[in-house]
Design brief:
Layout: H1 9-26, E1 58-61, E2 65-69, E3 72-77, E4 81-87, E5 90-95, E6 99-102, E7 112-113, E8 116-123, E9 133-140
Antiparallel strand pairs: 1-4, 2-3, 3-6, 4-5, 5-8, 6-7, 8-9
């Protein structure tokens, strides 16, 4: 049975993409009110900020990490960290599993999806002019065998 032009897969995919673009352009966009102050990011794999997300706020951070050294090279992306403020000095944290690609192994060994990490951050400071926090987390071994912590 011959397909009509309207049932061909390429036509359907193109129509769906165009419909999404038209609807996205037609819908009004809304943003939340600006935060009380500047946001402080905890860039994934580069955690150095001691301030928590304000209570009730949701902050999503993304990054890409390229690592080189001792003849090894890898890219880690998208490194997504979700932070939700649950109290004035406490936040919940979820590090979404990312993909680590070993650039030096042509057979893909050491590449794959990483582990899911959940945790909490408790701000202890400021004290004597320093912001101090403690981060406790649990890594769930959900990743690929060559990438996962396994425990």
């Amino acid at each position: 049975m011959a397909q009509t032009p309207y049932t061909q897969p390429m036509f359907v995919r193109t129509s769906a993409v165009l419909l999404v673009i038209i609807l996205a352009d037609a819908l009004p966009l809304q943003a939340q009110e600006p935060a009380a102050g500047p946001i402080t990011t905890d860039r994934p794999a580069m955690t150095n900020a001691s301030v928590v997300v304000p209570s009730g706020d949701l902050q999503v951070e993304n990054g890409v990490l390229e690592t080189r050294g001792q003849g090894q090279s890898a890219i880690d992306a998208p490194e997504t960290l979700v932070r939700f403020g649950v109290a004035k000095t406490t936040e919940l944290r979820i590090a979404i599993p990312d993909y680590l690609h070993n650039l030096t192994a042509s057979d893909g060994i050491g590449s794959g999806i990483g582990d899911l990490v959940i945790g909490v951050k408790q701000q202890l400071g400021p004290t004597h002019g320093f912001d101090v926090s403690v981060i406790a987390f649990l890594g769930l071994p959900t990743g690929a065998s060559g990438v996962s912590s396994g425990g």
